[in-house]
Amino acid sequence: MIPDLHIEDYSYPLPDERIAKYPLSERDSSKLLVYRDGNVRDSVFRNIAEELPEGALMVFNDTRVVPARLHFRRSTGAHIEIFCLEPVEPVEYNLSFAATSECVWKCVIGNSKRWKDDLLECELPGQKLTAELLSKDAQTGTVRFRWESGEPFSKVLELCGNVPIPPYLNRETEALDIERYQTLYAKIRGSVAAPTAGLHFTDRVLADIHSKGIEKLEVCLHVGAGTFLPVKTSAVSEHPMHREPFLVSIDALRKLRDAKAVGRDVIAVGTTSVRTLESLYYAGVSCIENGVPEDIRQWAPYERDYTYTILEALDALIGFLEANGLDELRLGTRIIIVPGFRFRIVDILVTNFHQPESTLILLVSAFVDGDWKTIYDHALAGGYRFLSYGDSSLLFRRK
Fold first, then answer.
1. For the chain, which residues make up each domain, given as ranges?
2. Residue 399 and residue 238: Cα distance in Å, rounded?
C-alpha cells in the first residue's frame, strides 16, 4: 500500500546562513554527526574509519559530474541557458559523449519563451557549438547540438559548459567548483549534480577505511536535475519521481551477494548509492517473475508483499547477466524511499543534511525509523553546515 504521507510533516527551519555556500578548505575537515540506537554525538569526518565496523562493504557512486550548463545568446541579444539532463540520440551516455558532430539531449531551458525557431550559438576560440530547439513542454525541451571541430561532445562541454552547482547556492559557478563539486573517485560521466556525500572523502580517509579491512565497492547512478526539485504537492503520493540510469557490474553484484550471505554490514555513501542498491532487489524480482530485469517503478516497493530473499534476487540478476554474456547491469530507477520502506541491503548510511520537504528527508526518515528530527535538531543546534557543501552524518539503521 502506498503510504499516506504529507510533505509538510517533513519540514524544518533552515536559515540561509546555515547553507554552506562554499566548501571547506579541506574536504575531510567537515563535522560528522554519528547517529546510533537513537543517540547522537559529534565527530570529524577525517575520523570516520574509527566509527565503521571492520570487514564491512562500503559502496560508492562513481558517477562524474559533467559541465552541463551551457549559455547561448540569440541574435536579438537575449541570453538562453540550456541545462543538459539526459541524452536522447544516441540514448546511451557513453555514445552521446563520444559523438563528434551532433547529438540530441533532453534539457531544461532557461528564458525559453524568448527562444523561437532560430539557431543559438556558443562560440569560443577553436570551438563553435549550435543549438536547435526540436520540441519543448512546460519544463523541458529537446535540443539538437552540432559542432564542426571533430572533438567528442564531452570535450565540447568542457570547453563551452559550466559545472551545474545547485541553484540554492545563489551564485555563479567559480573555478574552485570544477574540482570541489566532484568526488575524488568520480569516473563515469553523466551526472548533472554531484553525489555530495562523497565530497568529504580524501585519500587519507580512504586509506584509513582500507586499513580497517573494509572493502570498497563502486556502483554508478547518474544524478539528474530532479534532485533539486522540491515536493510541490502536500500528498507525497502525488509527487512524480524522475528516472535515473544506473550501472552495476557483475563483479559488484557477486561481491554484494557474498557480503549479504555472511551478514557483513553494507555501508552506502550517499542517498544515490542507497537508491541504486535497494533498486537491485526489485530488479531481481522482475528477473525472477518476468525473465528479464526491468526499470524500477516509483511505488513498486509498496504495491505488495515480496517473499523473495535478497539472495534470490541477486542470484537472479547474476544468472541473467551470465546467461546473456553481459558484464554489467544497466537499468533505470524511479524508486522513492519513504517511511514504511523495507531496507534489504543497506545497513549504514553516510549522507549530508538535506533540504526541508525533500524526498531525501523522506529517505533519511525511513532509514532511522522516523527519528530524523532528533538528528536535524542536533545539527541545527550544533552549528552544522547544510546541503551540498555542508557537513556530513553517519547513520546506523536499527536492525
1. 7-65+182-396, 69-162
2. 30
